[in-house]
Structure formats: C-alpha cells, structure tokens
User: Which sequence fits this backbone?
C-alpha cells in the first residue's frame, strides 16, 4: 500500500476508533455489572445495538476468549455462535496482549466473505481484573464514515510486467499497426477531442489500433474507437463542444506535447517500444505500457522531462525501460 493510501486509511481508522471507544466502554461496564449471566449479558448487548446502530454483531467472550453469548444483531440473536473459541482470531491479538480497546485491521469475514472490522473492549471488574471481552463486528459497506476521496500520489510508479514476456523481449520485433501507418492523423484527432470535446482521459492502444476514451458528459462509461473512427474528422460532429476544464492539472497547450512524446516512444526502437499510452488531464498522469510488459505512471511534467535516451537506457541519468519496468 502506498504512503498516501496508508495515510487515508489511518485517518479513517482514527475517526472510527474515536466514535467507538466511548460507547463500547459504557457497554463493557454494563456487562461487568451483570457478569456472567448469559441472559442478562444478551439484554445488555440488545440495548447496545442502539448505541452502535451501524454494527453487524455484538458478542461477549470470557477471559479465555470463548464466546458466552449469542451474536446479537439487528435481525435478532444468532445462538449458534455460543461456545465458539475465538482465541486464535487475528482481531483479538491486541486485546489478548493487553490493549483495553483495539480496532482490528480489515479482514474478509468467514461467512459473508466481505471486508469487516472488529472492535474489542476489555470487560473489567471493580479491581480492574479482566473478566472477558466485548466484541463488535462492522461490515465496511455499512459504516457511515465520511470518507475523503483518496488522491493518487503524483510519484512516478513503475510496475513490472509478465516475466514470460520480459524473458522473450529480444526475440520480438515491433510490427507496424494500422494506427502506426496513420499516426499523425490519429493524434490530431485525439488532441482535438481532448482540447475541445470533453475527453478527459484518453488511452491509445497502438498495437491494436484503437482508443479508449472517457468523457465529461458521461464519465462512468468509456467509448472505444477503432482505426476507422480515429482517422475520420467527421466524428467531431457527434461530440459536444466543451470548454477546456479550468481545474485540469495539465494546461491545454501541453496536451500536444504529451501525445507527440507518446508517438516518439512508439517508434523509438524496433524491440523496445510503446504498446499503449494514456493521459488523464485532471490528475495530470501519463500511463505507459511497453513491449516488455512493464508499466509506468508519472506526472506529465516528469514525463516530458525524459528524453528517448532515458527510456532506452543510453542516458547517463537513469536506467532504461528494461531495467526499471
């Protein structure tokens, strides 16, 4: 997991912990007051469903982590979980180690097979001796957290491809595609669609002679254009005119530079060459997939700073594609 994604997850866990610790502490005190009567404990848990309305299950374990109540849910009790030994479950590790309140990492639940969190609170007597554990399960899709939209880092990301393709790299040679034969026409049209027709993400598949496009007017669906579409300027008549977005990360005047550089990478070598390239104008990221099956994602400024020698490994500053991807 990237550092920026880790930060976003940690922020949500902190928020969830702050919401849960108070209600669970109160429930644990109520449980201690009626310990260890099963009927009374389940009555406490039933009331706890009001304190924790978004939980999936509440349950009580003894000090050996064996379940001494049913699972209480908003749909009623699940008695089949009584007597279950949970001591080996990962979400109990911190609690057994001494943490009075702990929130597990997300895991895939055994039954529903969905991402789940479990919070655990110690149940203590008046002398702070451990009686047992209060456990609360949460289905992630039912949590009402105000999640911020995760922002992708602009750091250059390199991903190695299929080893089978990499091992045979120098036994292959670029075969000219229909898009290669008419590349200048294709690029002129793609640039026009991005600049004035509301295309905010465009991916060119050079080897298969097609493009995949996402539009401002209908961002949840992509369009696939074949080579006949991509060399026919008449298709602009079917696309709404759009002013270039003011919040785009890349200035409109640099769009052409990016696509021309993609063109250069396509033809830079007969063995090491670009198979597909993309640009998203809002995050300013360029995506590259090369003949070695390695992929790169980088900010448009960094992309334009690299010369062909960099990608081929003839530059003194960085290794080439085959070494890094």
Assistant:
């Amino acid at each position: 997991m990237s550092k920026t994604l880790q930060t976003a997850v940690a922020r949500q866990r902190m928020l969830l912990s702050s919401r849960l610790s108070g209600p669970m502490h109160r429930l644990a005190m109520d449980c201690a007051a009626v310990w260890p009567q099963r009927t009374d404990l389940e009555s406490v848990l039933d009331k706890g469903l009001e304190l924790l309305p978004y939980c999936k299950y509440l349950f009580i374990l003894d000090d050996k982590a064996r379940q001494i109540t049913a699972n209480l849910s908003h749909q009623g009790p699940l008695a089949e979980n009584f007597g279950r030994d949970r001591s080996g479950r990962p979400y109990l590790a911190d609690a057994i180690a001494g943490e009075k309140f702990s929130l597990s990492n997300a895991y895939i639940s055994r039954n529903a097979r969905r991402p789940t969190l479990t919070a655990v609170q110690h149940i203590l007597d008046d002398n702070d001796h451990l009686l047992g554990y209060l456990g609360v399960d949460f289905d992630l899709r039912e949590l009402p957290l105000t999640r911020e939209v995760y922002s992708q880092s602009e750091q250059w990301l390199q991903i190695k491809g299929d080893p089978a393709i990499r091992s045979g790299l120098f036994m292959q040679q670029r075969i000219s595609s229909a898009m290669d034969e008419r590349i200048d026409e294709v690029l002129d049209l793609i640039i026009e669609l991005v600049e004035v027709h509301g295309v905010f993400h465009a991916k060119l598949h050079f080897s298969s002679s097609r493009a995949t496009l996402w539009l401002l007017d209908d961002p949840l669906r992509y369009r696939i254009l074949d080579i006949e579409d991509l060399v026919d300027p008449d298709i602009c008549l079917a696309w709404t005119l759009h002013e270039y977005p003011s919040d785009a990360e890349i200035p409109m005047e640099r769009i052409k530079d990016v696509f021309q550089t993609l063109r250069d990478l396509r033809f830079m070598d007969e063995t090491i060459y670009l198979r597909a390239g993309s640009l998203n104008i809002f995050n300013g990221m360029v995506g590259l997939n090369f003949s070695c099956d390695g992929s790169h994602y980088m900010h448009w400024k960094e992309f334009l700073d690299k010369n062909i020698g960099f990608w081929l490994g003839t530059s003194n500053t960085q290794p080439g594609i085959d070494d890094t991807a």
Q: What stands out?
A: Residues 87 and 96 are 8 Å apart (CA to CA). DSSP finds eleven helices and 14 strands in the chain. Residues 3-34 form the longest helix (32 residues).
